[in-house]
Each structure stands twice: as structure tokens, then as C-alpha cells.
TrEMBL record:
GO biological process annotation, one example: sodium ion transport
Transmembrane parts of this sequence: 12-31, 58-76, 88-110, 130-153, 165-183, 249-266, 286-313, 392-411, 417-442, 449-470, 520-540
Keyword field: Cell membrane, Ion transport, Membrane, Sodium, Sodium transport, Transmembrane, Transmembrane helix, Transport
CDD domains from the UniProt entry: SLC5sbd_NIS-SMVT (cd11492)
Sequence similarity: Belongs to the sodium:solute symporter (SSF) (TC 2.A.21) family.
Molecular function (Gene Ontology), one example: symporter activity
Protein name as catalogued: Sodium-coupled monocarboxylate transporter 1
Signal sequence range: none
Alphabetized Pfam families for the sequence: SSF
InterPro entries found in the cross-reference section: Na/Glc_symporter_sf, Na/solute_symporter, Sodium:Solute_Symporter_SSF
PROSITE patterns the record matches: NA_SOLUT_SYMP_3
Amino acid sequence: MSRDLSLHWLDYAIFGLSIGLSLSTGVYHAIKSRIVLRRGDRTAKEEYLMGGRQLPPLPVALSLLTTFLSGILMLGVPAEMFQRGAQIWLNFVIGVASSIVTCFVFLPVFHKMKSTCLHEYFIHRYNSILIRRLFSLLFLLFTIVYMSVVLYAPSVALSPVLQINKWWLVLIFGCTTTLYTCLGGLKAVVWTDSLQAVIMYTGVFTLIYKGLSHPRVGGIERVMNIAWDSGRISELGRLDWRIDQYNSLWINLFSGTIVWLASFGVNQLAIQRYASLPNLKVAQSIILYTLAPFTVLCSIVAFVGFIALAYFYNCNPLETGEIEKSDHITIIFARDILQPTPGLFGLYVSCIMSATLSTLSSGMNSMAAAIYEDFLKNKLDGKITDTGATRLNKIIVLICGLTSTGLAFLAEVLGGSLRICISVMGAMSGPMVAIFVLALFFPKSGSKSCLISFFLSNLFCLIICIANYIQNPYNDLFLPTNTTMEGCNGNSNFTIRMMPAYDAHYGNPDTLYISRISTYSYAGVGFVLMMVIGWITSLFEKSDHKEEKIRHLTFAGRNEPWPDTHHEFDHFLKEIR
């Protein structure tokens, strides 16, 4: 970045203050939890991992809003709006539909289990420790890869403008999150997320207000006119049904819903928060109350991309060479707009940092719960005290935090952050959702059909994901800007990007068909594939359970109470210890 726009000391002060607030929140809740435990009305482990199941609704709601809107998405979504249009906005706001499905389909079954880890469902439903651990391994892989990219990408984008080496930022973000999550547990995560949600909203609204007021942007009317005239809004109207294209309305509606179900409906990060609330009605009300704020947050984050488009329309920094990656468009736009007012750019940097820390802390806490509950608890039962179990969970959080920070140093080779994020999330989301849908809606399905379909669908998604990453068939897809000498203040040192001879929306025709399958459709493809294979194989499978005994674990029995006794389940646990 060539411009000499040094930051005011107040920007650095606000950035440092936001880090200090996150750390102090963790320390405060660590101390508060010790006081609560002295009353003896809850266990130390339940207090640490579940917040004593008595967390207030408002901070849980704010935590849910911030957990899945990482620093990658705060930077990558506006850049995608700038480059390729508004389809990415639809891909995110469709999360509202997923939340509603979660509220009335999944949550009534999961909440009544009163489990620390969602994956215990597979023990009750299939009597299978293998399925539980396989799914847990996929969840851990999904989370650790996502966390490493979430940590790396914002550090790279913020490094040039903060004039701090990217690796120092990786260490600052990673160690800060690890420390307060390790100290305070779920309470620290939820309450820090609440603080970070306020910073995120404030930062984005400030950027939008200052951006629209800037003379080079020209107000909201010019922003919308450019977005329309350049074809970025009309992208929402793509109705082609084929999956070998970059994106479409149907891909977003179906696959987008599956992706967000994998986040809000069948993800330990979200279910752990729902289970921390006193009862099902409170948990359902929290989901419904967050629908509007979630839509607003996704929309304003995406709208930043259109404002940046108006600002850079006549002097595209990708064509002038000021930046090399589109992921950096958002941060240099924010720098140009906010830097003249001391402190405002520091606020926006804190906004990006807050989104990053929120995702990281949630991931660490949930990974610790999954590792302990799915792999260690049964072996240690009766051999470790409650206090010892809590200390072990803190050690696991520490290891997860250090591992994700270490992996972030390897993320440089992965390429565009949003592309990796969409690919990995999509490839894993389909089977992750399908395995629960199969269990909930097909009571005749047994452990064998579940395992076979889960393995094959994940294998296929992995193959197409690798093919897409290697061949990158949509590398030449972008929508035009209008860079001119006048727009660049008389500077003629720019190179206009030329559109390829083929229709780039359908990918490079010289690449393999499977590599051109839309990364946004991976979740839908994986979901359909597993459901079809699971249904077919279940027809040939001898049922290993009586349907009436698992009715309360299916959609049909979602409102039935949890049975008072589980003799078979208790016997099974004794056998696997």
C-alpha cells in the first residue's frame, strides 16, 4: 500500500483498549466463577463449560450474532460484493431461514438431552461410539481449519495499515483469545462476545455513515446507481439451475440454508449456548429475537462493499497495483475514509479484531467440550475429581488455542480467505447436517447406513473441493469498474483488467467439470448425496433398535419428554469404558 497515511496515537490506544477489555472480562468471570462455586449449587466443570446453565438471554443472543461473523467475513464479504455482486449477501441472510428451522426442528430434540456436547445424541440414537467420535473428529477438523484461517486473514489485511508485522498480530489475537477463554470458560466467551458485538455494530455503522458522507462516494443514490449499472445487483436474478456455475439464486437458497444449519442447527458452538439457557422456551425466543439483528448485521457488512465500489469505481486499487488481493479492499477503504478523524480507524480495526476473537474463543471453548466429552470423559469417569476435570478442560483450551495459532502460520499458502472459508465450510456442512436429518426423520435408519452414507458423501465433497482449489476455474471472474486517469487524479499508472474470452461465470471450460461445481453448492451436494445413499442403504439394513424406544430422539417425538431411565444407555457406557 503506497499511500503514506500514518495513524494517530488514539487509533492505537482504542485498539489496545479493546484487547484489554477482552482480557479483563475473562479474568473477571474467572474470579466470579470461583465465588459462585463456593455456594456449592453447581459443579466446577458445568460452570466452566456451560456457564452453570443459567446464562442471561441477552449476552447469549449477542454471542450467537458474533460467533459466525468472523474477521474473514467482515473483510471478505464486502470484497465479494465489490468484485462479483450481491449473491454473497443472499448467501448470508438466508441464515434466517436456517435459524427458524433450528428453532422448531432441531432444538426441541437437542435441548432436552441436557448434554454438554451435542455429539452425545449419536449414543442415544444409534448406540454407536464410533459415529459419535467420527462426527466429533469432523467437527474438530472443521473448527481448527476455520479458526486458523480466521486468525491469519485479518492479520494480513491489518498489518500494512497498522504497521505491525502480520505474525505479531497473529500472536496477539491468538494469545489474547486463548488466555481469556482458558481463564473464564463459557461465561467469559459469552460476555466478551457481547462486548465485541457492540464494537462490531458501532464500527460498521461508523464506516457506513462516514463513507456515504464522503464526496468521492457521492451519497447513497450514487452507490446504488453504480451497483445497478455495473450489474452487481442484477446478479441476484440468476435463475439457472445448473451447479457448474459460480453462484445462483437457487444455489444460495438451498445450499446457503444447509451451510447455516451446519452453523446454527447442528454445531457444538451454537448448541452449547442454547443449552446454557434455563429452558427450551428461552432458547427458542433467543433465536427468534436474533433474526432481525442478524439480517441487519449481514446487510450492513455487505453494503460496505457497495460503498467501497462507489469510492474506488473510477480508480480501482486492484488495477493501480495498490493492493494485490481483493480481500484487502475493505480495510484500505476504511483507512481512507476514517483515518482523517483520530480514533475512528482504531474503532474499525477493533471491530475486525472483535469479530476475529469472538469466533476464535467460541471455537476453543466448544472444541474443549467436544474433546473431553467425546474422547476422555468415559475413560476418566470415577478417576478424576470435578476440579480436576475443569483443570483438564482448561489445558485442552490452551492446547486448542496454541494449535490454531500455530496453524495460522501455515495458512499463507491457502490463497483467498473467503474462497477457502466458503469451500471448507461448504464441503463439510452438507454431511454434517444430513447425518442429523437422517437420524431425526428416518427412524428406520441404523448405524451402518449412517456410517456408509456419511463416509461416501464426505469423500466426494473432499474430491471436488481439492479439484476446485487446484484448478481455480473462477479465478478470472469479476465485474468491471471504470478506472480512468481523471479518477486517479491524473495518474496513468494502472492496468485495466480484461474479461476472458469465455463466460467466466461458468468457469474456465478447460478445467474439469467437478472443479467447476460451485463452491457455494457444496453443502447442498453433500447433503443430497448423503440423504440418498443413507435412505437406499437403510432399506437393506436390519434395524438395530425399536422405533418406539427412540421416538423422543426423532422429529415426530420432539415434544415428548426425555425418559426418566436409560438402562440400556447406562449399560452401553459401562461396556465402552
